Amino acid sequence: MADIFPQLQEQVLQAREDGRKLNIIGGGTKAFMGRPVDPNTDILNLAEHTGVVEYHPVELVLTVRAGTPLREIEATLAEQGQALHFEPPRLGENATIGGTLACNLSGPARPWAGSIRDQVLGIRLLNGKGEHLRFGGQVMKNVAGYDVSRLQAGAMGTLGVITEISLKVMPQPAATLTLVQDMAPGEVIQYMNSRAAEPKPITGACWVDGKVYLRLSGARSAVEATAEKWSGKILEQGEQFWQQIRDLQHGFFTATNVPLWRFSISATAPQPKLEGEWLIDWAGAQRWYRGEGQMMEMEALAAAAGGQVSLFRGGDRSGEVMHRQPEALKTIQQRIKNAFDPDHLFNPGRLYSWL
Amino acid sequence: MASKARISKLQLAEQFRAFIDPRFVITDEETLKPYECDGMATYCEMPMLVVLPDTVAQVQQVMRICNQYGIPVVARGAGTGLSAGAMPHRDGIVLSLARFSRILDIDPLARTARLQPGVRNLAISEEAAKYGLYYGPDPSSQIACSIGGNVAENAGGVHCLKYGLTVHNIISVEMVTAEGELVTIGSDGLDSCGMDLLALLTGSEGLLGVVTEVKVKLLPVPEVARVVMAGFDSIQKAADAVGGIIANGIIPAGLEMMDSHAIVAADDFIGGGYPREAKALLLCEVDGTEEEVDEHIAQTEALFHELGATSVRTSRTEEERALLWKGRKSAFPAVGKISPDYYCMDGTIPRRHLAHVLTEIEKLSGQFGLRVANVFHAGDGNLHPLILFDANAPGELERTEAFGASILRLCVEAGGCITGEHGVGVEKIRQMVVQFTDEELRQFHDVKTAFDPVGILNPGKNVPALKFCQEYRALAPTQHTQTDAPHG
After folding, report:
1. I need a surface site. Which of A17, A317, B53, B409 has the fewest CB within 10 A?
2. Range 13-72 of A in CB contact (< 8 A) with B
3. DSSP state of A183
4. pLDDT > 70? residue B473
5. How do residues A141-167 score in pLDDT, each as one tens digit?
6. CA-CA distance, A238 to A226, in Å (whole number)?
7. Is the alpha carbon torsion for B102, B104, B109, B112 positive or negative?
8. Domain at B103-220: CATH architecture
């Protein structure tokens, strides 16, 4: 646990003076995401910038340095019977909270519990001018100024170095159960969404290998009463199943030699017509596809399903790997980039070739 | 903000009338008058003119013209805002979205609604109720306020702790930029590639774009909701009870607190039923399945007794639930009845400092010689002190504003913020320097410029011009610097 902010700021100011670029890294577990790192960058390492700054369980608020590993945060919260309800994927032992926010990664509970973006209350950011800025705060409601904290979610470090994050945390559910049953891919979208439209304590809806898995969490009485009412049998290793989905350790994800595509689309969109292996999560709103493909074709399929696609892992990463932006939004994002990082120090070309 | 080219009011009106029904291009004083303020009526300004387009193409054309001539544009929904965010600009136009009032589509399976920005907040839930669904955020103005304004202010309500703010409940917006481009921000998926512009736009108070369509998430209506009302003989005990509920792993759908002044005013207004002798009152609503609610209500009642509640009453029917809420829901009009005017503050604090902050407010009340009643979204720390005053008494409005500014400073010093849900607008613009450094404010201005290079969208609101900041800081009681920024 250390506060290495002075070194971080010094390195940013130095890089600016020397006209160098910086590749921001934490635990290094998400290096495979985004576009390849520019070989002409120096490493700005946050792995040592760790520790809980403040934690008030009764306030449901946690403030940590950005390099703090998820496992440390989760252990601290568990001592108080609390958890990160957005279930950040632990893509490795050293995955950090800063990287999770920069990549906007959330687990299976996301449609019900919200994403990391939803739970961020405030950040401190070191911008491209070396200024240390504070946005948002440690309270649930704060509408003073623009929401620069949530703007970072998915920006992949292109706007600055997130040094500190305040998050809303929640109590661990008293009980959790998983129901599983066989289901054909043609029926599953309708089924998951109908279940999600019921006022029941659902916190997971996933389909893989011909089976649909529904998770119930909350008060024990409510979870058990719902499980009795709904079809499917109780999965004894439910916790293990969701852990594997969450951390991308399920067999579907471990075949790393094939490109992995992530479709973030309308939960009710019909399954895109693409032969190959699919895993459906988030009650249909997140669909993983394993297979070869061209970005342009994938974009067309995603757009037809009301959403977007990214080449999450593997494949040809020399072009764009994120869904293309319309011209007007591209211009706005370039201008925002200039507003935070006028010399383009941070993560050049990592999110889009033009950022 | 400098005008690029001069154009007279009449010439501008003529340009608009070429593509907007002339009846909806308002230039005469009498018809303009209702637009001079929003819900924050102490701040008034007459606009140059008002336009009420009814197609997105017209909105785009209005923006192109205004951008060309550097004419300020103040977008306006229902005009219920409480920070003068929709106060007109003297040299600009008001762009009213009132005619965009249709619910375009409800998708019960996807649990979404596609709305024009002028749709009233409550109308969404009323329509969605046909499918067993509702829209989460419920600001107290929900009968009148519009979804476009909710997006502009990131509106909250009493159910935020469990169901979130506007930012958590919208999926995408269609927006016209300052330059007249139509863009969709967000998608039908739960996230989109790139920077999270949807979050940035939400709560941006009309400074980044004009929202012309909103897609929101709908939630299944809970099977049952019940409320426990408890009286306490001290604020501290009530505050401890709030902490106790959350420590027990219960996230209430609503958790409201009122102090003795608010309790008495509300009780008088609704004609009895509230514990008048209590120093603090808690309303704790729990919703969910029948089983879950029974379990949590029993725990909540036991906890309140254990933590020294002087009275505990739980709703058994929907009618009783409505009755228990009635006093809280009428707190503002109730206070309006015991004072000619009141000024509602909106600071947010970490809950653990509640007793301290309320004690300090009480002291300030004595110093300023003005009464104050407190209602509090206790679950999420959003405080609404209502300062009672008489605008006709010389100097009292100024004293009220000074009192309000002191309360907001107190909130920031306790680790909170100057506004939880009402926005900065014009009203709290001086207090922005209490919460933010010049570097942070400059960063905000640079974000604004990225969307609006000419600076025509709602200029003078939300973020103070840096040239005024020094003056505001000089006027403030203590200096705020980066190093002493609040930690709480």
Report:
1. A17
2. 54, 56-61
3. -
4. yes
5. 999 999 999 999 999 999 999 999 999
6. 16
7. negative
8. 2-Layer Sandwich (3.30)
